[in-house]
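Researcher: For the annotation table, I need structure tokens for Transposase. Please keep the output clean. Sequence:
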Amino acid sequence: MRYPDGGGLTAEQRLRREQVRMQAADRFADGASDAQVAGEFRVSRMSANRWRRTLETGGREALVSKGAGGAVCKLDDAQLARLEQALEEGPTAHGWDDQCWTLARIAEVIGRLFRVSYTVGGVCYLLHRLGWSWQAPCRRAAERDEKAIAAWKDEQWPIIKGWRRSRARGCASRTRPARP
């Protein structure tokens, strides 16, 4: 729920929290302690203490919500729609030979299409916001020969590994041999 709707709190949730802070300010004005306010509004004592200190230094105006947190998205709605379209086209349409969208590749596509730079972490947040996820590439060599690997495991590995002792009862310690 958090990522597809843009993350963070909605405007209504921010307004509700602001109202709680204002009610707490009224209780502080009545002489309530941090512990009393924390218990009454079901918040931590640390939050109540922070509200009281903010109220003392900046007044009630300092308790007003400052709006949605986080950085502003560098892409507008039309650009986000174009980015989703580019992602749906697939990596091969953008010059890569496999079907794997990595964060670095998506950052490169964003740079090409919109002349905007995103960090790999920023691309990850942006993808979650759009409801997408990145894909980790499979690190296998193109020259890998599965038949040769299986043959080596069957023929060479037992020779390298050596023979095993029987499953007879024994002790792993060299100084204490097993009893018959």
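Researcher: And a one-line annotation?
Model: Confidence is low (pLDDT under 50) at residues 1-6.
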